[in-house]
């Protein structure tokens, strides 16, 4: 075997060792040497990639909010406002979740806690926003729910077509 063929054979196993967390202790020196020669062993996305995806999703949700609002304006001003508001609260909730989840670098426990707090805040915003739209402002429920579903549909398409 040549040196190049051996490195190609070792690379997937070294990445697996890194991914499983087995690079602690004596293996870390070998992993560091491999990393210097062949580049990074990191398999997880960075915070910057998460922030970038979250920003794209929020912008797409805002565009969907405007489109839903304009589409439901054909049924009347209140229907258009309800659809816009339904999709807008999804965009606000997603932005809040992203701000909490991708706020800072930390360990697994801290990251999970930030994500959990972000999800709780997201549901508070969604329920509170829907209550505001339906109860306080007395806007029609069907356009509001259609805007909410349209806002969430962005998540499905954003993760399906990441490229």
List keywords for this structure.
163 residues, mainly alpha
Topology, element by element:
Layout: H1 3-19, H2 27-38, H3 47-72, H4 77-101, H5 108-136, H6 141-160
For the biggest sheet, the summary is:
none
Summed over residues and divided by their number, the pLDDT gives a mean of 81
Order of helices and strands: HHHHHH
Q: Count of DSSP helices?
A: 6
Rounded Rg: 23 Å
| Beta-strand content estimate | under 5%
Amino- and carboxy-terminal Cα gap: 37 Å
Q: List the quaternary state of the chains.
A: single chain
Any low-confidence stretches, pLDDT <50, length ≥5? 19-23, 25-31
- Return the structural class: mainly alpha
Range of helix content: over 70%
Total number of beta strands: 0
Assign an overall shape.
Answer: elongated
